Amino acid sequence: SKYTEGKWYRGKILNLSAIGALIFCEKIYPLGEIITLRFSLRPQLPQVELDARVIWHVSRELQHEIYPGMGVEFYNIDFKVQEKIIEFVERNLPHDIGGEERRTGKKEKL
């Protein structure tokens, strides 16, 4: 969501990482604009509020299934909030992605 002149706009985070997000939303902001996002990382952080810079727009022709949308890069993110985002992402990864290497840093022997 973005707070503009007393109004928040709703969106849906389709992809989240430690450094940014892909957001599906009706309201698209210009490239380079700093926006404020508010979302939850349950159960650890009921609400996160941080700034992000718009770095790309979803192409209607190439990515019509997620249009309208935009990619954002977190801006001046607090280290502790970033750690919580990383924990949330890792906790919600499918179990077979990365397998043993992701959990232990060692590759599985085949």
Brief summary:
This protein has helices spanning 79-91, 99-104; strands spanning 3-4, 7-8, 11-16, 20-25, 34-41, 45-57, 69-75.
Describe this structure in words.
The chain is globular. The chain has 110 residues and is of the alpha+beta class. The protein has a five-stranded antiparallel sheet. The chain has helices at residues 79-91, 99-104, and strands at residues 3-4, 7-8, 11-16, 20-25, 34-41, 45-57, 69-75.
Comma- or semicolon-separated keywords:
two-stranded antiparallel sheet, alpha+beta, 5-stranded antiparallel sheet, 40% strand, globular, 110 residues
Largest sheet: 5 strands, antiparallel
The global form is globular
Q: Which structural class do the helices and strands define? A: alpha+beta
What is the tally of helical segments?
Answer: 2
Written as H for each helix and E for each strand, in order along the chain, the element string is EEEEEEEHH
Determine the oligomeric state from the structure. single chain
Strand order of the largest sheet: 3-4-7-6-5
Q: Termini separation (Å)?
A: 45 Å
If you average the pLDDT, what whole number results?
Answer: 81
How large is the share of residues in beta strands? 35-45%
